[in-house]
Fold Bacteriohemerythrin.
Amino acid sequence: MKKEIIKWSKDFETGIKAFDDEHKILVKTLNDIYNLLNEGKRDEAKELLKRRVVNYAAKHFKHEEEVMEKYGYPDLERHRKTHEIFVKTVIEKLLPKIEEGSENDFRSALSFLVGWLTMHIAKPDKKYGEWFKEKGIVIEDEAVKID
């Protein structure tokens, strides 16, 4: 039986469909990784984390930042910085821990990712959603596709 380490909630919705769809992909990916770990498929979980969390998140961040820049979102630089710190943390700290560490290290890294994503969507991402809504800006973009 599949379990969820993170459950999508309406509370995560930014009001920008493309970004919400991308966030749902990231949430599903974290749940898929969690289930692979529970099934003893650590190598598959590692590959999924690298392919989807690292690569897809980078595409998602770029998409968000491009839209923010296009419309003059005033908190773009701070938002961009949170993305940069996240990527640096994942590459420099979490990936080595996942590659070389124990299953508990992997689960700890996964917990960090869940916590970060939850907080990031619920606060800074919701903030830009509110800003776009206040300005009456409707984003018609499509969600970034999964590789």
